[in-house]
């Protein structure tokens, strides 16, 4: 009897294990595979990742013709749940089993850092469009990691400068408690202090906080003129809405969203958000080229593109162009090609990928319009100022990236 | 008869990296060891700890830190993590075994949450970022663990050692006393056994091996994160044990395999996966309470 039981146990274990392995085990690489690893269900699923991100990548692949160097281009996607361990395990499996050639999106800086270092160890290119921390191209920079779109250095250059020059000198931070929030707070503080402002305090809130009451009350009591929200996605929306119900703006304090997307403005409503200034890497209604692309994107996905979605399209296209030009999907050759190329499309005007992996391009300071001034559902903001790439990003000589000196 | 089982287990274990994705096989082994360690306490002493994530995740952080920052070799790192779990287990156990049933579970949960908040706030853990980029290093200074096969067989060896320790403990006089305590504690006391001492020893052993599992996982994934130390992990291990068969030697291995495989296969379904696994748990509790292995054993026993 015992023998049978044991055999059955083993058999069952084996069946399960077998089922788990029934995935693609082919090691063939006669295709180019792009992995979209993003937050598909959490706080960043609306504007940064989610179906809109996968849609943007697929659109780029379709526009490219679906194949490169005579090989089909495949796109796979997964939800990292904002957990760096899940992201890292997924990326590892993609690289080992699925043979992905490039991983993109990577919203959430903790995820971005984890996957960039893992992928580079294994010789796979990452094109990070979602995560914002400057660590990606500084102390944590890697040979194959590219930071495409924006970072926490570029965001406050527009927003914080505008606010301090308008007289908002005393700042208080509500910060998302992980790599991104801390990085954004640090960079914003530098901008504020360099212009003669001061930071009177800060509080860290966990990612995905629903109740910002205690943080907002601390901010209210701090005596600051400006309450900076060093968070993003649903966290920003929640904190702005709750600040409204605490009467913070009516009480004379000003809110500064350090990373706001047009989808956030939309869910806040222009009434709540009006007058809000924020920095964006791209705005769909900026010029004809952007409008034309945005229109096609909207037809495909049903929503207006945010700047991370546009960045995904642009990054995918840039990657495929580099593969085509290099004549191979070998990571070294493609990375070298990306270094040489100039990226000049609807998203990145005069864009250049530097040896530290940072894409330098123009950024925009946007201001939310009055609802009456909007000409369409998504016409929520106007461009107040174009920030040239060399102002938005620090020079390469200031990068602490170790490998560029070699 | 036992010999056949061992041959099968070892044979399958040796062949696994050729049949399935090695990293997945390593994950299975880590969770199987974790579940076996937990089962020692739940299945053989009848103590439901709801704080085993603290040992699992805590050991992962300690191992990650000593390997990454202090430059320990991987095996020494795993041993340090295990030692940490042992000490933590002694402290938790000493406090928790004074109470029984739901109170025992609540005390272990509360203590584990302290470890969770420490992990969230302490500098060296990296908070939400997790402890990233733990090097796998070299075993005994010669075997390069970045090779999947070398890593796999190291993990397999660690699993087998842990599994043998549990097997030995269960089939020893010590294990018999534990079962006696589970069946009838007052009688065990009246027979002159120092029940608290036995419970504490079982608790420490269970915590230590859970720590070994967590420490090994940290080396495999080169990552220690809040997921490992958060309370749902404590719940997951209960689920693995119950589904596989509480109080059976192989049940937790089967349960861990089933749950990990399900999470892997169904990950595309997003948060629905928790609903599905919850449903399976309900079905398990309502219809086959002995778990997969427990029910199989009963079926075979009634036939023979």
UniProtKB/TrEMBL annotation, chain A:
<feature type="signal peptide">
    <location>
        <begin position="1"/>
        <end position="22"/>
    </location>
</feature>
<keyword id="KW-0732">Signal</keyword>
<dbReference type="InterPro" id="IPR028081">
    <property type="entry name" value="Leu-bd"/>
</dbReference>
<protein>
    <submittedName>
        <fullName>Branched-chain amino acid transport system substrate-binding protein</fullName>
    </submittedName>
</protein>
<comment type="similarity">
    <text>Belongs to the leucine-binding protein family.</text>
</comment>
<feature type="domain" description="Leucine-binding protein">
    <location>
        <begin position="32"/>
        <end position="371"/>
    </location>
</feature>
<dbReference type="InterPro" id="IPR028082">
    <property type="entry name" value="Peripla_BP_I"/>
</dbReference>
<dbReference type="Pfam" id="PF13458">
    <property type="entry name" value="Peripla_BP_6"/>
</dbReference>
<dbReference type="InterPro" id="IPR051010">
    <property type="entry name" value="BCAA_transport"/>
</dbReference>
UniProtKB/TrEMBL annotation, chain B:
<dbReference type="Pfam" id="PF02653">
    <property type="entry name" value="BPD_transp_2"/>
</dbReference>
<dbReference type="InterPro" id="IPR043428">
    <property type="entry name" value="LivM-like"/>
</dbReference>
<dbReference type="GO" id="GO:0015658">
    <property type="term" value="F:branched-chain amino acid transmembrane transporter activity"/>
</dbReference>
<dbReference type="GO" id="GO:0005886">
    <property type="term" value="C:plasma membrane"/>
</dbReference>
<feature type="transmembrane region" description="Helical">
    <location>
        <begin position="6"/>
        <end position="24"/>
    </location>
</feature>
<feature type="transmembrane region" description="Helical">
    <location>
        <begin position="237"/>
        <end position="260"/>
    </location>
</feature>
<feature type="transmembrane region" description="Helical">
    <location>
        <begin position="31"/>
        <end position="55"/>
    </location>
</feature>
<protein>
    <submittedName>
        <fullName>Branched-chain amino acid transport system permease protein</fullName>
    </submittedName>
</protein>
<keyword id="KW-1133">Transmembrane helix</keyword>
<feature type="transmembrane region" description="Helical">
    <location>
        <begin position="150"/>
        <end position="170"/>
    </location>
</feature>
<keyword id="KW-0472">Membrane</keyword>
<feature type="transmembrane region" description="Helical">
    <location>
        <begin position="272"/>
        <end position="292"/>
    </location>
</feature>
<keyword id="KW-1003">Cell membrane</keyword>
<feature type="transmembrane region" description="Helical">
    <location>
        <begin position="75"/>
        <end position="95"/>
    </location>
</feature>
<feature type="transmembrane region" description="Helical">
    <location>
        <begin position="200"/>
        <end position="225"/>
    </location>
</feature>
<feature type="transmembrane region" description="Helical">
    <location>
        <begin position="102"/>
        <end position="122"/>
    </location>
</feature>
<dbReference type="InterPro" id="IPR001851">
    <property type="entry name" value="ABC_transp_permease"/>
</dbReference>
<keyword id="KW-0812">Transmembrane</keyword>
């Amino acid at each position: 009897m015992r023998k049978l039981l044991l055999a059955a146990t083993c058999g069952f274990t084996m069946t399960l294990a077998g089922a788990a392995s029934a995935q693609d085990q082919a090691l063939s690489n006669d295709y180019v595979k792009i992995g979209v690893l993003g937050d598909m269900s959490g706080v960043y699923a609306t504007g940064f990742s989610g179906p809109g991100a996968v849609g943007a990548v697929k659109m780029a692949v379709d526009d490219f013709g679906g194949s490169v160097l005579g090989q089909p281009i495949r796109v796979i996607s997964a939800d990292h749940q904002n957990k760096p361990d899940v992201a890292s395990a997924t990326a590892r499996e993609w690289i080992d089993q699925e043979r992905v050639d490039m991983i993109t999106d990577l919203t959430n800086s903790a995820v971005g850092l984890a996957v960039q270092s893992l992928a580079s160890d294994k010789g796979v290119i990452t094109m990070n469009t979602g995560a914002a921390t400057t660590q990606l191209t500084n102390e944590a920079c890697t040979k194959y990691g590219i930071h495409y779109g924006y970072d926490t250095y570029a965001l406050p250059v527009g927003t914080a400068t505008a606010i301090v020059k308008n007289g908002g000198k005393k700042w208080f931070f509500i910060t998302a408690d992980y790599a991104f929030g801390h990085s954004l707070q640090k960079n914003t503080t530098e901008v504020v202090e360099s212009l003669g402002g001061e930071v009177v305090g800060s509080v860290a809130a966990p990612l995905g906080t629903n109740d910002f009451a205690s943080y907002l009350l601390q901010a209210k009591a701090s005596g600051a003129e400006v309450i900076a929200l060093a968070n993003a996605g649903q966290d920003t929306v929640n904190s702005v809405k709750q600040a409204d119900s605490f009467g913070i703006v009516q009480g004379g304090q000003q809110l500064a969203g350090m990373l706001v997307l047009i989808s956030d403005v939309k869910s806040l409503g222009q009434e709540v958000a009006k007058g809000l200034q924020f920095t964006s890497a791209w705005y769909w209604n900026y010029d004809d080229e952007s409008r034309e692309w945005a229109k096609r994107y909207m037809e495909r996905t049903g929503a207006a593109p945010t700047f991370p979605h546009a960045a995904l399209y642009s990054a995918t296209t840039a990657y495929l162009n580099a593969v085509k030009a290099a004549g191979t999907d070998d990571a070294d050759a493609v990375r070298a090609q990306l270094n040489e190329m100039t990226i000049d499309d609807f998203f990145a005007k005069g864009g250049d990928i530097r040896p530290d992996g940072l894409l330098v391009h123009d950024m925009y300071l946007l201001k939310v319009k009055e609802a009456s001034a909007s000409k369409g559902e998504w016409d929520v903001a106007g461009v107040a100022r174009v920030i040239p790439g060399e102002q938005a990003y620090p020079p390469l000589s200031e990068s602490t990236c170790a490998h560029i000196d070699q | 008869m036992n010999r056949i089982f061992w041959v099968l287990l070892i044979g399958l274990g040796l062949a696994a990296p050729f049949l399935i994705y090695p990293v997945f096989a390593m994950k299975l082994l880590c969770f199987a060891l974790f579940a076996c360690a937990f089962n020692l306490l739940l299945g053989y002493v009848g103590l439901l700890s709801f704080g085993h994530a603290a040992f699992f995740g805590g050991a992962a952080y300690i191992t990650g830190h000593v390997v990454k920052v202090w430059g320990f070799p991987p095996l020494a790192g795993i041993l340090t993590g295990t030692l940490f779990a042992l000490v933590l287990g002694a402290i938790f156990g000493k406090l928790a075994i004074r109470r029984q049933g739901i109170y025992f579970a609540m005390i272990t949960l509360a203590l584990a949450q302290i470890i969770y908040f420490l992990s969230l706030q302490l500098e060296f853990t990296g908070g939400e970022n997790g402890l990233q980029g733990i090097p796998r290093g070299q075993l005994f200074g010669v075997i390069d663990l970045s090779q999947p096969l070398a890593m796999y067989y190291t993990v397999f060896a660690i699993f087998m050692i842990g599994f043998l320790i549990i097997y030995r403990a269960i089939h020893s006089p010590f294990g018999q006393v534990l079962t006696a305590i589970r069946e009838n504690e007052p009688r065990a006391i009246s027979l002159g056994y120092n029940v608290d001492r036995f419970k504490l020893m079982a608790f420490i052993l269970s915590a230590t091996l859970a720590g070994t599992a967590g420490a090994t996982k940290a080396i495999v994934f080169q990552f220690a994160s809040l997921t490992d130390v958060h309370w749902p992990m404590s719940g997951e291990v209960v689920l693995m044990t119950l589904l596989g068969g509480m109080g059976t030697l192989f049940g937790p291995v089967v349960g861990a395999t089933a749950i990990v495989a399900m999470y892997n296969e169904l990950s595309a379904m997003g948060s629905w996966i928790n609903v599905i696994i919850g449903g399976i748990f309900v079905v398990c509790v309502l219809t086959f309470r002995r778990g997969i292995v427990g029910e199989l054993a009963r079926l075979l026993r009634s036939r023979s």
